[in-house]
Design a protein that fits this description.
- The chain has 549 residues and is α/β, with parallel strands linked by helices.
- The protein contains 23 helices and 12 strands.
- It starts with 9 loop residues before the first helix and ends with a helix.
């Protein structure tokens, strides 16, 4: 497929540059491309139709058992045939499957309770009652992969005689990938590809090869995918970084630095965090911990680590919890941090890999003109669940129940932006392992150039106790003309759930909602549009530079 980023309409280029994964995101862009065919000439319309077909096919491949997406795919196929015969046969098969049951209250209750054994028993019972309704298998795949119940899922898949062989092999490839059994995963993907040349499976085969150390084979597989999908943003970024060996760790960040933590009543997790820091390559970097009024065993944990690491660890003890923004500012105001060239903030329940600082160092040398550098954060219990990646701002609009607030059918208010959540739509098969600019990076683990911090000022105390203070600070950077840099080759494991998973706590929900409302009105609609325009320009320039190279 011929493809040029400058030739596609800006309305489509903006979301596509943010990412090309996630079933909902892909379907949304496919629908947009189809709408745009009515406002361009015939040649452009055919090109957009090709892109829409590819986006819908990728959405179907992300969840091939979904009858709705399979039906959408067939609708486009009827207008302009493009599917290989084998794929067309499977799409027709799954499009004819029974829809989701009408009453799903019991399933929703199981999922909300996060009681995995109960949920699996419920799914087992439903599947015995409706053995040919693949809706239950779809739910089982997601629950088992997220919760790490790989043996249970493998039994489900291998015992299902109704699954077409290539689908079964690809699903088993996913199971072994989740187990970190990359050699076995590669074999299953190869088997599936012999029956059906699905680009998504080839992409995962490439990622399996990469994780086995077979870099050339990985690049070969990815190149074959990009021939068919030259619009595949995530893979373009991934492939380019690996080709240029930018995925490897570099030297430690230049100059004097310090690791900063603030903690409140997480003694067990703090101990794990400090253990991961002690096992990492810190060079001559020291650690400064602010005890934010802890009343648990935290003082004893800090005593232990001060003994183990001697002068490498220092603490500041406060009599009460002053919240995250004030704790950050307190640490940044100390003479030893003022003298630093850079500082890295780390949550008290986040575990870093041994080369984390060297990966930040690599990003700082590859992209030297950025004020803050972030990373890819995954669940500590399941590394395939991405809690945060590169964050972008989508246009605003009415908000209400979709944000967790019941509003009687009326919008609670008009939002000036939404935070893009593409990474929440997929499990991590390597799609977010790349470097590039973005609007914001997670505050769970991020590194600042000290001079940049001094230029934009401290964290805003209005976002206490902890929600959205990091996002507001990053927006301030962008308005000043400097974007954060996402270093997705650095994976940090985070103990705490984030995002919508925290909404079961009413107090936390209200605090989060209040701070989000503050952030929505902190800047004007025009300023948020400026943020989006600045980012789009940077994403496009970064992509064009890679394509030229």
């Amino acid at each position: 497929m011929h493809f040029s980023w400058q030739d596609i309409p800006r309305q489509l280029a903006v979301p596509l540059l943010k990412g090309s994964v996630g079933r909902l995101h892909l379907v949304s862009m496919a629908n947009l491309a189809l709408e745009l065919t009515h406002s361009v000439d015939t040649q452009q319309a055919l090109h957009l139709l090709d892109i829409a077909s590819g986006l819908l096919t990728a959405a179907w491949e992300a969840d091939p058992l979904d009858p709705v997406v399979a039906g959408q795919l067939l609708s486009v196929q009827n207008v302009r045939p493009f599917l290989p015969q084998a794929s067309l046969k499977l799409a027709k098969l799954f499009a004819a499957m029974p829809p989701a049951p009408e009453n799903l209250k019991e399933l929703h209750a199981c999922l909300a309770a996060r009681d995995t054994p109960v949920t699996l028993r419920y799914l087992d019972a439903r599947r015995r009652e409706e053995p040919h309704n693949l809706f239950w298998l779809r739910q089982g795949i997601m629950v088992a992969l997220v919760e790490g119940r790989h043996d249970w899922l493998e039994r489900w898949i291998t015992r299902d005689d109704s699954l077409p062989r290539p689908i079964r092999d690809a699903l088993l490839g996913d199971v072994y990938f989740a187990r970190s059994g990359y050699r076995e995963a590669a074999e299953f993907y190869r088997k599936a590809l012999r029956y059906l040349p699905v680009p998504t499976w080839r992409e995962r085969l490439g990622e399996s090869c990469y994780r086995m150390g077979l870099r050339d084979e990985a690049l070969t597989q990815w190149d074959a995918v990009l021939v068919l999908r030259p619009w595949h943003t995530n893979l373009l970024l991934r492939r380019d970084d690996v080709r240029r060996e930018r995925d490897n760790a570099g030297e430690l960040p230049e100059g004097r630095g310090m690791v900063l933590l603030y903690t409140w009543n997480k003694a067990e997790y703090l101990d794990m965090t400090l253990r991961s820091l002690a096992a990492s390559n810190l060079g001559d970097t020291n650690i400064l911990v602010l005890d934010n009024g802890c009343t648990d065993a935290t003082p004893g944990v800090l005593d232990t680590w001060e003994d183990r690491l001697a002068s490498r660890v220092r603490r500041v003890t406060l009599p009460c919890n002053i919240g995250a923004p004030a704790a950050r500012n307190w640490l940044l105001s100390l003479p030893e941090t003022r003298a630093c060239d850079w500082v890295a903030f780390l949550d008290d329940d986040a575990m870093v890999p041994p080369d984390w600082l060297r990966l930040f160092g690599r990003a700082m040398r590859e992209y030297p003109d950025h004020p803050v550098y972030g990373c890819r954060v995954v669940s500590h219990h399941d590394a395939m669940t991405v809690q945060s990646a590169d964050l972008h701002l989508d246009p605003g609009g009415p908000s209400g129940a979709a944000d967790g607030i019941e509003s009687g059918g009326e919008p609670a208010h008009i939002r000036r932006f939404f935070v893009s959540g593409i990474h929440h739509q997929v499990l991590d098969f390597g799609q977010f392992s790349y470097m590039r600019p973005c609007v914001s990076v997670t505050g769970c683990c991020h590194l600042f150039r000290r001079r940049a911090l001094d230029a934009v000022g401290p964290f805003d105390l209005r976002f206490s106790p902890s929600q959205y203070d990091d996002l507001e600070h990053d927006v301030r950077f962008v308005l000043a003309g400097h974007l954060p840099l996402y270093q997705g080759h650095l994976q940090v494991r985070h103990m705490r759930c984030s995002g919508r998973a925290t909404w079961t706590d009413a107090v936390q929900l209200m605090a989060s909602w209040a701070n989000l409302f503050k952030l929505q009105t902190r800047y004007t609609a025009e300023e948020y549009e400026t943020v989006r325009a600045v980012e789009h320009k940077a994403l496009l320039e970064d992509m064009l530079g890679r394509c030229d190279a």
